[in-house]
What does this fold into?
Amino acid sequence: MHTTTLGELTVSAQGLGCMGMSEFYGHTDWDESVATIHRALDLGVTFIDTADIYGAGHNEVLVGRAIARRRDEVQLATKFGIDRSAGDGGRIRRGEPAYVRRCCDASLLRLGVDVIDLYYLHRAPENVEIEETVGAMGELVAAGKVRYLGLSEVDGGLLRRAHAVHPIAAVQSEYSLWTRDPETAVAPAMAELGVGLVPYSPLGRGFLTGTVDLAALDAKDFRGRNPRFAGEAGAANQAIADTVRAVAEGKGVAPAQLALAWVYAQAPRLGVTMAPIPGTKRVKWLEQNVAAMDITLTGDELAALEPLAGQVVGGRY
It folds into this structure.
């Protein structure tokens, strides 16, 4: 496993997104999820990503238990800032200093650790200015509870404002063959400031892998209601997955591996360091994702994939 840097934090060049182990992607299995995390560590995938809202804290507990005896191997990332206590219909984005401190202490307790390596603001707050939130996050660094700070789903203006208060190591954003917004929204500021990119959903929430049966998604799987998966949009977007599959077959790799290889190929062009965090709750998909790091795409393959984002039907949420 190669390593890369996010600001001054060194992480494995591929991470593991753990959200689906607790919520949003249908059936979950504690033991299988823990086995997947252990296998990730065995393979050198040591950059582990969670958040306080995934399963209402369940995911942090799961991750904490899984890494308990191997904490020194892990670069542990978690997030705060989305308050779902009033239900998803009443969720708000918070960032007042007392809330920041309370969230951090609660995450440390659930994770069973003394320090969080990378602490993200999950979304820009709506009740205070971002400078106030990042100032409070910086106090967590000074207190030794957090090592580095990150932001999720911000644009260049917000990143610059936050970075002026305290150095930001990473921005986590959805980025894939069919979601390329960060290229114009935030990557130029990241390159200027030396901030790393952590692409989440680099496999298009599984759509680009060609393994998702849209008709079989259960009630607990939010993709059944996602604008890109549901109804006519899902049928129209199948052409994107078909192109990915065709290029992958021509190269002799899995569609998921091709999609990940494309993400890695963009780092030099964008001028940023990058550590994608494909999410999975199964060992076989984890192993397939790790193998993608050895794949290099040709100019013709990149050209075939280039137009796909412009063909997407439906919003991200």
